[in-house]
Amino acid sequence: MNLSCVTLAALIGAASAFAPASSNSRLSTQVFAEKDDDMSKALPFAARPKILDGALPGDVGFDPFGFAGADRESLINMREAEIKHGRLAMLAVIGWPIAELFDSKIAALLGLPSALTNSGESPSLLNGGLDKIEPEYWLVVLGIAGIFEIDSSDTKEAKGKDYIPGDCGFDPVKLFPEDKAGQFEMQTKEIKHGRIAMIALLGFVVQEALYRIPVTAETPFFFNPAF
Questions:
Q1: pLDDT at 90 over 70
Q2: Which of 14, 127, 141, 183 has the most other CB atoms within 10 Å of its CB?
Q3: How much is the CA Rg of the chain, to the nearest whole Å?
Q4: pLDDT of 131-182, one tens digit each?
């Protein structure tokens, strides 16, 4: 696709070299640029959805299933959901292998039963083992999630139009920059890391569901050197 674009641009340039400069040539260049802007950065051969204009960090015009919706409100709601799922995935993609590496050792040290499955996998819907998790744990998780949701709602109401999707008022070490350019860059990094984490976590789930061994044992070169 890039080669065809270069070829087309070269043909246009060659044709204009033999024609006098006029408003028509400038118009054709302008139309070509506008059409190029309407193409997806992720898929240069496909048109981007109109709602994905690049205003949000990490927006590369990729939404083949139309999840973003048809209006700005739907887009912001989906972005908020994406950020929250990405943050959970970033935590889970670290916690999953750490549990498989250290849970049995810590449990034995404390005289407690291991929460891993019989084959040493992290408990999940597909792996099983969720019945080993104490109900108090889920209450704590739900409580923490509720606190962040309330903080996010309060922050959204307080900031109004200045609200940034995913802002729950939590930044104890002041990682979020104060300038607009720095904020946009930091948000782009977060959304990209979140997306990679969601893909990686899905890989953990599928891999263990298929092979029935811990991901740390299936791909030890990713984990053993670090621990």
A1: yes
A2: 127
A3: 25
A4: 888 899 999 999 999 998 888 888 888 888 888 888 887 888 888 888 989 9
C-alpha dihedral sign at 28, 34, 38, 42: positive
Residue ranges of the binding site for chlorophyll a: 82, 85, 189-190, 195, 207
CA 112 to chain centre: 36
> How distant, in Å, are the alpha carbons of 27, 42, 53, 105 from that of 5?
18, 16, 21, 58
Of 129, 111, 112, residue with least CA distance to 120? 129
Alpha-carbon distances, residue 149 vs 146, 156, 220 (angstroms): 5, 10, 37
Tokens describing residue 167: 């802002």
The token duo for 38 is: 């309407």
Residues annotated within the binding site are 82, 85, 87, 149, 189-190, 195, 207
User: Rounded distance, CA 53 to CA 41, Å?
Assistant: 11
**Per-residue pLDDT at 10 exceeds 50:** no
Residue list for the binding site for chlorophyll b: 87, 149
Query: Measured between alpha carbons, how far is 130 from 116 in angstroms, rounded to an integer?
Result: 9
Q: Which residues contact 62 (CB under 8 A, 6 or more apart)?
A: 40, 41, 42, 43, 48, 52
